[in-house]
Write a structure and sequence with these properties.
CATH class of the largest domain: Alpha Beta
Strand order of the largest sheet: 5-6-7-3-8-9
Number of strands: 9
Strand content: 15-25%
Length: about 210
């Protein structure tokens, strides 16, 4: 994670439309900084997942621009988890750590710690195919954390979780922000919104922003 105090994500007049059609959202102007957890909210079809794609740089907005300053690594946790069916949960988290040059023994210790944070340590040797939907979703968050992203984008992280596990996920996201990441969460979950430091609401009207707890 290389994000520093000068890093930021700048949105200036961002709008997006699928041709043909009116913009699904417009007028997004925000500065997102390390240490912040942003809740992206709005009704289904408002463009929450689309905005995450724009923030990641996978798509370009049809109006305005997005500038990633000092952001080298972007992690994305999809709403529907995808993993390697016959690889263990531990393998999924170990590989990104090894890819950064860490030896396997140390990478395994780090991966086990991350799994423990999300309540998955006991499932480390289970294959991805053996995990429930909620467990698989938390595993993908573990894998994203293992990449030490400067910007972490998370799509509906608590949709398949009970209240206890959802609270754990929200706590981990806040912890990741505290060590220097920018975290952006697309969510319908009121508890997740309340746990975020900032909120950006999408609709076709002028965009409402501000403190997530207001």
């Amino acid at each position: 994670m290389s994000t520093g105090s000068c890093a930021r994500l700048e949105l200036r007049g961002v709008a997006h439309a699928f041709t043909p059609g009116a913009p699904i959202f417009q007028g997004l102007t925000e500065t997102m900084s390390p240490g912040e957890v942003w809740a992206v909210t709005g009704p289904s079809g408002a463009g929450k997942s689309t905005l995450l794609s724009l923030l990641a740089g996978w798509e370009s907005p049809t109006a305005g621009d997005i500038e990633r300053i000092g952001i080298d690594t972007v992690g994305w946790v999809f709403q529907n988890p995808h993993g390697q069916a016959h690889r263990t949960a531990l393998d999924h988290v170990v590989y990104p750590i090894i890819a950064r040059g860490t030896a396997r023994p140390e990478a395994s210790r780090r991966a086990e710690h991350i799994l423990d944070e999300l309540g998955l340590r006991a499932l480390a040797e289970r294959t991805f195919a053996q995990l429930s939907g909620g467990e698989a979703q938390r595993l993908m968050l573990c894998r994203a954390i293992a990449t030490e992203p400067d910007l972490l984008l998370v799509d509906e992280p608590t949709a398949q979780l009970d209240r206890t596990n959802a609270a754990t996920v929200n706590s981990v996201l806040r912890s990741l922000a505290r060590i220097g990441a920018i975290v952006v969460v697309a969510t319908h979950d009121h508890d997740t919104v309340a746990s975020c430091s900032h909120r950006l609401t999408l609709d076709r009207a002028p965009v409402a922003t501000g403190d997530a707890r207001s």
